[in-house]
Amino acid sequence: MEFNVLTVILIVTIIVSLMAFKDSSLKEKLMYIPYDVKHHNNYARIFGHVLIHADYMHLAFNMMALYFLGDLFLTADAYKYVGVDGSLYSEYGELTGQAHFLVLYVLGGLFSTLIPYIRHQDNMVYRSLGASGAVSAVVFAAILWNPTVNINLMFIPIDIPAYIFGPLYLAFEFYQDRKGKSGIAHDAHIGGAIFGIAYVLIINIDKGKDFLDIFS
Prior knowledge:
Layout: H1 5-22, H2 24-30, H3 34-40, H4 44-48, H5 56-74, H6 79-82, H7 88-92, H8 94-111, H9 114-120, H10 132-145, E1 150-153, E2 156-161, H11 162-179, H12 186-203, H13 205-213
Antiparallel strand pairs: 1-2
């Protein structure tokens, strides 16, 4: 594993999550509670929830998705998949590429809280946690950046082109969000995905044009 901003995010998230598994007060302190944000100005929760997870499976799934898609998006390893212009490193250089990745992840986690905030700002019992929204931002930024790369999921052991996986995943999230009662913050996943797409379009509009060219 190359030591870069992705590695730091993984290490910090795993350490804090493991600590929170053993310390319920720490988990409660970092959990995202829109009511507490609005009525008690506890803005630390907007970012803190990204560092904690519900259980080991939740942590493992998020970190594996972040590692594999983040590594593809960030580093020169993307060369073997999509050519010499397939990563942030090759497009912007190592330092700027890592800065873009960090901004994407942090703001993706922030943006993923907006829909839950609008919905639950006066709900005293609503709580959520996990890096899923921030990871979703990275995943969808990577999909837009490298739309022809194949994605292979543990529970779907076949290669799926990213430009097909992305719309299918979003359709599933919208369906589950409308259905409700899953105990999963699908709206946070959607918010993160929207931000990931928007961020790539802001820094490189040609990636959006290249994505549309696939369907023409």
